[in-house]
Design a protein that fits this description.
Structural class: alpha/beta
Largest sheet: 11 strands, mixed
Bound molecules: threonylcarbamoyladenylate, magnesium ion
Distance between the termini: 49 Å
Helix content: 25-40%
Shape: globular
Number of helices: 12
Radius of gyration: 20 Å
Length: 333
């Protein structure tokens, strides 16, 4: 298949929107990461997304809308909290899980009776959804298991020859995927941390918000955290290289990284280091996936990363990605 790479002109967005409505696949920028879009109501198109990504088909997709009115096409009687959050945080990097209406193909929702909905703030993304005239199901536009794409070139590298169109936008402003919050119960539950924080949601709704234990268990804040979790089954966002996350006081982390780097370079390995400014977790979010991909391109064999030690929620979201990338291979120093 020949993939057409389009500049985001009004005319090209119209063309790509028409293609979406005809069942074709279009990758497009969002503020979080690039998405790989298909008409959410077209089962064949959605199945083609799974095939293009090499993704297991039981993993549900997020459905993107460009207007809150479209929520009614997807959600069956969403509660007031959903409208409250939509009013305050959409368009933006927040996905809400709601009970789905009949008629959304099982392929889109992985057979669940719920659906994830998000209105992106990226102007190109919203113009494309408008042009398509339908809600757009879109997972991140990477080959399954690889780091999420935050630059057009990442999508070109992964998806050329596999999909119909790639809209070439700017680098993603946020850099990690949206916060996913389950809104089907009385208490919202965060299933995936992102730059929209629990604190923000809790404040807007004036109620407690939980974090799914699956997210907490795998984080450094969990007492029962086992440094070397077994199981490649957790490997996600994975670079080609082996990866170790060093956690502890920043000076100890830096010293240990220097030591392990030298040790492995002396053995002839190509080593890469990821050490973000501890006080700027938004920058870390923006750059993290791109760093992993840069190291893959440079054929790095071992990545040594410093854990963010701050306790802020954005840092927590970045650490969630970092730990998964490293397959939970953590050394406390
Ligand atoms: O920022 C984002 O959310 C990006 C851009 C393209 O919008 N999309 C994205 O999609 O990250 P994806 O497919 O890579 O991740 C979707 C996540 C998965 O963890 C999936 O399990 C969860 O959302 N999800 C989707 N629908 C769900 C549902 N009905 N119930 C529970 N989790 C759901
Ligand atoms: Mg993804």
């Amino acid at each position: 298949m020949k993939t057409r790479i389009l500049e985001p002109t009004a005319e090209n967005i119209r063309e790509a929107g028409r293609a979406l409505s005809e069942g074709k696949l279009v990758a497009f920028p969002t503020e979080t990461v690039y998405g790989l879009g298909a008409d959410a109501f077209n089962e064949d198109a959605v199945k083609a997304v799974y095939a293009a990504k090499g993704r297991p088909s039981d993993n549900p997709m997020i459905v993107h809308i460009s207007d809150v009115k479209q929520l009614e096409m997807l959600a069956s009687s969403p509660n007031n909290d959903v409208y409250e959050l939509a009013g305050r945080l959409w368009p933006g990097p927040l996905t809400m899980i709601v009970k789905k209406v009949e008629g959304i193909p099982d392929a889109t929702t992985g057979g669940l009776d719920t659906v994830g909905v998000r209105m992106p703030s990226d102007e190109i993304a919203r113009a494309l959804i408008d042009a398509a005239g339908c809600p757009v199901a879109a997972p991140s536009a990477n080959i399954s298991g690889r780091p999420s794409p935050t630059m057009a070139q990442h999508v070109i590298d992964d998806m050329s020859g596999r999909i119909d169109y790639i809209i070439k936008g700017a680098d993603c402003r946020v850099g990690i995927e949206s916060t996913v919050v389950d809104m089907t119960g009385d208490t919202p539950v965060i299933l995936r941390p992102g730059i929209v924080t629990r604190e923000q949601i809790s404040e807007i709704l004036s109620k407690d918000v939980e974090i799914d234990p699956a997210v907490l268990r795998k984080s450094l804040t969990d007492e029962s955290f086992v440094p070397k979790a077994p199981g490649m089954k957790y490997r996600h966002y994975a670079p080609e290289a082996d990866m170790i996350v060093f956690s502890g006081r920043r000076d100890s982390v830096e010293e240990q990284i220097r030591r392990v780097k030298k040790e492995n370079e002396d053995r002839g390995l190509k080593v890469g280091v990821i050490l973000f400014d501890d006080n700027d977790s938004e920058e870390a979010a923006r750059k993290f996936f791109a760093e992993l991909r840069r190291m893959d391109a440079e054929k790095v064999q071992l990545i040594l990363a410093g854990a963010l030690s701050g306790n802020d929620e954005v840092g927590f979201a970045v650490m969630n990605r970092m730990l998964k990338s490293a397959g939970y291979n953590v050394q406390n120093v």
